[in-house]
Design goal:
Aspartate Aminotransferase, domain 1, binds pyridoxal-5'-phosphate, 2 domains, 15 strands, 15 helices
Length: 437
């Protein structure tokens, strides 16, 4: 073991019960391909790609080498009024993968920052076109758009919102899309397209011309894989078009092959006006987020500004950081060389067969899945939501499988380099653990 574990006091862990964790820590000291090694020397298979970040597996040499080389050549230059070649190259590579005209790429450092950036772009777009009265934002119950102020405001996870005041004003939420009658639906559920009409109701109530943007995750990830009902995203698109509202897809989890296509928009045949991404953009190796804006959005903003005027008063010290750009270019080239998006598409049926076979376990109350993303809901223990889930985090880790648990829902999102035997091992271990509940 390279690092002593006798002083855990100073690191304040996010989304973690710090006091309890520090009494009984789970430290990971190595990651190679599909496996992590714990500080106690145990092997743990990665069933959630880190945190939906690493479709190509851990510690890939190609990415490490590219970052190393970049760091020796140019370790930092701001993107304000300057640039460096890797930033333009990564934007070009990303725009090759994005659907339709979503070709203009703004870099941030995380999914949360990408969301803030996307929402600001939406407001700016309307102002640039003389419609500055469009200030309302539409989010969705149970949505997750990161932890910053606008992101949690349009998000709909109560624990992430309730302690932090009022958030940004003028936000309304669509109803979430989980329906009792859709339990155990594989892929897109049959029922629920009409839930998209909530957006029409907001237009009727507030005036469509006051709404700037509607942001949704095409498949809600963090809450536990809510797959859009058939026709739902199409209906959102239709209402947005009717009322001049921008549609934003938050593809922080679904981007880069998770649905078997580069982005979820391509899988569902619905094109947003703005799209966010992060996580797998660099295979999780270096923090980075990005926003892709359509031709229409980019040009409206840039053309409304005088020739020498700054068009967008926004950006980060580390926008397009050279290390992140090098990691992004190397990751995309790795995905293409190893055909990882196609491998995800080919593995989907086997993966979902395995996951849906868990429905015979008595504690399992629902399973949802599409692409290489699935969630298994467990009944609350003693009527207290989250209790069983908290226990499951520890039990699954101790049994040698790494997952994410939200509430009482286990999320599974294997790296695309997984073989059938690896998926059997992941799901088999989950079965062993939750069968005992
Ligand atoms: C859809 C979505 N948006 C935004 C975020 C926030 O990303 P980050 O944690 O990188 O800030 C996440 C994180 O899981 C996410 O799933």
């Amino acid at each position: 073991m390279r690092y002593p574990t006798n002083d855990l006091e100073n690191f304040w862990l996010p989304f973690t019960a710090n006091k309890e964790f520090k009494r009984d820590p789970r430290l990971v000291v190595e990651g190679k391909g599909l496996y992590y090694t714990s500080h106690e020397g145990h092997e743990i298979i990665d069933a959630v790609s880190g945190l939906f970040c690493s479709p190509a597996g851990q510690s890939r040499t190609e990415i490490a080498d590219a970052v190393h080389e970049q760091m020796l050549e140019l370790s930092y230059i701001p993107s304000f009024q300057h640039g460096h070649p890797a930033a333009f190259e990564l934007a070009r590579q990303v725009s090759r993968l994005t659907p339709g005209t979503l070709d203009y790429v703004f870099f941030a450092n995380s999914g949360s920052e990408a969301v803030e950036t996307a929402l600001k772009i939406a407001l700016l777009y309307h102002r640039a076109r003389g419609e500055g009265q469009r200030m309302r934002l539409v989010g969705r119950e149970r949505g997750y758009h990161g932890v910053n102020f606008a992101g949690f405001s349009v998000g709909g996870m109560v624990r992430n919102r309730e302690m932090y005041g009022l958030g940004v004003p003028g936000v309304v939420h669509l109803r979430h899309t989980w329906l009792e009658e859709n339990r155990f639906s594989r892929g897109q559920p049959e029922n629920g397209a009409e839930l998209a009409n909530d957006l029409q109701r907001f237009c009727d109530l507030h005036g469509g011309e006051t709404i700037a943007a509607c942001i949704v995750e095409p498949v809600a990830g963090s809450i536990g894989c809510y797959v859009p009902p058939k026709g739902y995203l199409e209906r959102l698109r239709e209402i947005c078009d009717e009322h001049g509202i921008l549609l934003i897809f938050d593809e922080v989890i679904t981007g880069f092959g998770r649905m078997g296509t580069a982005f979820a928009g391509q899988r569902f045949g619905v094109e947003p006006d703005i799209m966010t991404m992060a996580k797998a953009l660099t295979n999780g190796a270096i923090p980075m987020g990005a926003v892709a804006a359509s031709d229409k959005v980019y040009k409206a903003i840039t053309e409304a500004s005088p020739e020498k005027g700054i068009e967008f008063y926004h950006g980060y010290t580390y926008t397009a950081h050279p290390a992140a750009c090098a990691a992004g270019i190397a990751a995309i080239s790795l995905y293409e060389r190893e055909n990882l998006f196609d491998r995800a598409a080919e593995m989907e049926a086997f993966f979902l067969d395995q996951v849906f076979a868990l429905q015979d376990i008595s504690v399992v109350t629902d399973i949802r899945g599409i692409g290489m993303l699935a969630a298994v809901d467990m009944a609350a223990q003693d009527g207290t939501p989250g209790l069983r889930g908290t226990q499951a985090v520890k039990d699954l880790y101790a049994a040698g499988v790494f997952t994410k648990v939200t509430g009482d829902s286990i999320l599974i999102a294997p790296p695309f380099v997984s073989e059938r035997k690896d998926i059997e091992r992941m799901i088999g271990t989950i079965r062993d653990v939750i069968s005992k509940y």
